[in-house]
């Protein structure tokens, strides 16, 4: 009981103490009521909420409040709401929470639609079950209607000139003797649903291929039969002196770091105001004003009728935070983790809780003397795929962002049961993973928004290019060496980087702050694998929508409204409001408030080990101090007292 | 006492039970005595041992013995010895340990010299302390001779046509008020020592620059003063049910893996006979016949007189296993680790022990549901730099090889105390890290020997190239997609890969074994960062010696004598016996016994955080089953019972 109180108390006492805290359930209810009772929105047509989130205060206002060590009153709490209403209009509404009033209400008339809400997807997905042509299709395939599950898929944009309706396509699967229905697709059926009228508006049953068998697809341990695989012995972490971090509301302090951790229904985890303490001066220095996963683009590489449109934008179309799962203690996070819940507004605007949506823990990485304890935040599980996103803060000053892919592939039914049957020149657009089952080729592009403010918000982007120099004057027995040629980006055009095109260190520096020996203070971005860029043609429609996915790094001038790499309205977007378009404005980015966009990219050729559920594949990047500190900050961190070490004395 | 017995017993009982076990102290003594008492070697001239290691049995003999489940007698124990003797001759000697006899004794007459032994380096490094011109140089710099430490550095080869003497250059430093003398070089002095006559044969004092101050260079925690950095709380791992692996001599079984772990004075850790168990058939299937770090090339990028020759080959010139440090319990390996000692022969042939040279442990990686416990082996600390090399075996069938760089940079003294003093067009060949201290640009190329035998030793190397396909016939609303074009290497020329030049999966497959659905069984090599290749000109001498460092991947036909990427004799080598030269033979590698060579590469631009000791930087690669199993082997591994989980119920 005491423990329960203890963990509840900080949240009761500190809740909403920070202007960046996510909207609370009571705030969500106020927003819902404010909108529902407002003149002009109060109608017989239902209001459909598609996004409700904190409208972030102005950066300058927030920074002054933060610098004042929270002694002045915080900026007012505002919400940003996107809803559909009336004759299918998209409204952008700002609500002042304290005054319970609508500050502005604007109708959006451009291309693209807001993020789906869960309820409309669920409603749409049940329509076929009462639609007689579909019932006939299921029968024709020898399946039971009660075993069928359909899911809504975004349709993309393929060059239509006029505005298209807000439709989805349904992809249907068979459960039966497996929980893993994703492995049992019903191929050959096209079902189009208009979400605004919630009706099937197009239906085709074009061909029949066998539905893959259920056998071998279930991944639950209770469903496995002998023989079992051998395993090691369980390993658990313990912290004999308790946890080393303090969570005050959403503000986390650990070792030399402090940062704010928020949740957003679209972005998932948001890190804000991350700053690191310099030992000598005892002051915290700014590093990352804001960091989050801005977009996740997953284009499949099969151009056929059933698959060509599967070019998902998981953040903008589906909501990365909406699809987040509750983290499972011991399975997803270790025993020493602390959990945070997330809240979002459903279709009706009512608050819904996702329990344990984030966890925070100190990690044992003790493989070597200078690899210190770190604190990490994994989170987010989305769709059939599971993405585990980690933010690791290290005492060295590094922030390591890692993405782990696991979960279930999207597979395609086929008549083939053996690779030997495939005709020589035929393209399966994937790998035969099991009988009648193709794992379709695809990519994952996770684009991170990184508003780095290295020791202040006037920063510059520098490519420290590594260039071979010839020695031709006989001044050395050597004939060559490499050196570093630093190129500072003047405008956004200089801030576009294709990783691997030439060797370079990528730095964000503050030329207004120097170390004692006169170097510009800075941080470096280091890739840790997963540097794929999109291979689609520039004129292909999915590529036009995600035109930023051809380069892994972009640097833009800070603009409050430029947060989502594929634009604010991604469903059926046409690429007129994305990162690449903003960059075309070619603003000055030298000694300016700049944002770095970094894409973690994977080309995924499936293999049989990915069936029925893929083992983790990891990639990411590290933000590493590079002339930020005067010297290695680990040196000044005293090692932990060494206590229990039972095994060492066994050998002598 | 019981525990001590327990941990000693397996080693007593099983010692030498496996033909791949490293030479034991008693075997090293037998080899020493056999050689010392042999006719023709028994002379008044001292014998200098440069390498004593197990002469590996023939692969076919070993594999038959292994397949027979160790019931037949093992292949005989033989040692391979390199020694210098008589008129400076290099001898290659094979010793039969059981018969205590010399099987062959050959004089090597080619270019290059064997690995230095420790004793000759130590003797050489003390010569200047009694050499009056050097004593004068130290005095001129205002330093105390008793504070001076010199180290032997290989001199490389810079186009000399005639055979050169076996010389080293000495690089001298000042300790004084720091243990980190590497940060305090004496610049401007050239000292050349002939190792065979153990005399200074050349000496120059060319210029004086200030010796960097000791202040701030000591990294020992006891030497730090207030204020200290903040830290988290200690995190320890526990295994309530004990360890999950079994070590029988040098053979390790854990979960679905088994492998042999050896130590060699040149290579460090050697993994052999790694095989993974398939649950369905209950059989172990071969994956890696042998894997080890074959060479570590570290070229500095400063062409000036004091630095141009610093192009080290740490394995071939110095011995990666010889420079291995004892791993520190709790600091280097967690509480649940088991340690192994290593033994080598010193200059005189006498066995020397390196305690705890390797450790084995189960790792808690429990950040997510499908990231399972792994077993890992870190080891090896070499020279001023520390390299921590890890082999992680995962229940998913993956082997992850990670290299962590930490330790102390090689720095150069300078008159500069501030970056502002440097003339605009002057190249420092490095970064000003502190007053009078430049961290010189350099690379690290760690080349791994990977004799993969995927389900047998007839394998092929396949590049699954990812290629954009245009859709031009109007058959799809898409205009493009990518597909996979598999190219099987016919000869060694097809086995050279420049990573990043085009997107591809790199696979080693066995086309003689198919999965049930007809795919070739295989493993994939996935890079996890650190994919740098050498940037030196092809005609530069260090590059000629390490000509293989321009490509990260080579595939060669198995040849017992081709083990060391830069050749057997690396000191003053001329590039006539290295991996690139072997590959020029262009042997057939399709459906053959093949070896993959993978280089983990870092371009290192130093930053102030690397002073006085750099925080860990990690890179590596993963060998990942890719159509090796019928499906994900994790599915058949039952989860651990969930026990102690105190924190979860605090929030509800």
From TrEMBL, chains A, B:
UniProt keyword annotation of Ribosomal protein present: no
Post-translational modification: Topaquinone (TPQ) is generated by copper-dependent autoxidation of a specific tyrosyl residue.
Copper amine oxidase catalytic domain location: 236-634
Residues in the signal sequence: 1-17
A Pfam family matched in the record: Cu_amine_oxid
InterPro entries for this protein: Cu_Am_Ox_Cu-bd, Cu_amine_oxidase, Cu_amine_oxidase_C, Cu_amine_oxidase_C_sf, Cu_amine_oxidase_N-reg, Cu_amine_oxidase_N2, Cu_amine_oxidase_N3
Residue numbers annotated as active site: 314 (proton acceptor), 385 (schiff-base intermediate with substrate)
rRNA-binding recorded as keyword: no
All residue ranges annotated as the Copper amine oxidase N3-terminal domain in the record: 114-211
Primary enzyme class: oxidoreductase
GO biological process: amine metabolic process
Known EC number: 1.4.3.-
Any one Gene Ontology molecular-function term assigned to this protein's record: copper ion binding
Domain of life (superkingdom): Eukaryota
Modified residues (2',4',5'-topaquinone): 385
Key words of the record: Copper, Disulfide bond, Metal-binding, Oxidoreductase, Signal, TPQ
Family affiliation: Belongs to the copper/topaquinone oxidase family.
Protein name, per record: Amine oxidase
Taxonomic lineage from the root: Eukaryota, Viridiplantae, Streptophyta, Embryophyta, Tracheophyta
